[in-house]
Amino acid sequence: MMSRALLRKTLLCLGLGVSTSLSPLASHAVEKIRLASTIWAGYGPLYVADKLDLYKEHGLKVELQFFSDPGLVVPALASKAVDGATLTYDQVIGAVAKGHKHKVVMPIDYSNGGDAVVAQKGIASIRELAGKKVGYAPLSPPEFLLSYALKSNGMSEKDIQAININPDAVPGAMASGSLAAGVTWEPNVSRVVAMGGGERYHVLYSSKDAPGLITDVLVFDEALVAKRGKAIEALIKGYLAGLEYMHTHPEQSAAIVAEVLGVSAQEATEQMQGVYNMPLAEMGLNFEESDATTSFYGSGRVIAELMLESGQIPALPDIGSTFDSRFIDALTQ
Length: 333
Description:
The chain is an alpha/beta fold. It is built from 13 helices and 11 strands. The strands form 2 sheets. It has a 6-stranded mixed sheet with strand order 2-1-3-10-4-11. It has a 5-stranded mixed sheet with strand order 7-6-8-5-9, with helices on both faces. Helix 4 (about 140-150) links the parallel strand 6 (about 135) and strand 7. Pfam families: NMT1.
């Protein structure tokens, strides 16, 4: 799975089809949405919808603008340089806590094993990390995963020797033996596990154990949601058409996604196995109030508390203010 931070190039905008209309849109006016994003296997349905012109029947044109630095996407959205964005939910929590009125309108995917705590074979449980050197990047998806794993075992980061390290540097540190465990993402996870013929390290805990904690989402500013709801609905319908095509035409879809990721079709398929694109029928679960990590309330609290403790946000945000479920509610009725 190619990480958001592993993007090696910034692409030019990808044009989508135009014309015709969805009943909510004007019959002779083509709506246009500028969508900021990073390259990520979980965004496959967007790439498929682009390539196959699946927005056309909904009277919509989407201009994808790719950013090499995920940290620049939120400022682009805040400055109205783009109309919407694909973000990780922790980015939304941080932005809303600082006063931005961003709204998640649709969950896209969540990490499903693509992020993991890899450890020496002799470490059999999270509790056995106590007092040991664990490498991870602060305020990143890997830290949120580790924090949740520790909390679930009655521990905190105070119980380990925290080593600040970029996720992409974890394999090298593990190879040198300087870490007992590291938290990273694919393809780094597989690289670590393969060291020493697979005899040195193993996956101790992964995002499969906390489904929904690391979630990618579709986001718009509150004012744009109120003003251009029909265009947002059209975008979501185009995305869902792309997701359906991926299910019915996996090989063709892998080739499309591979072209955007800059890898082979086989590699794209492997990367997509580390994420889970939830179908429309399951999207509503994210908006339901629950402590489960598949709910924005559950994952949001974990993320927000971690950010508050580290001084990254001034106060805990109202989780309910981070999303608007009207579009998914309407489509699932």
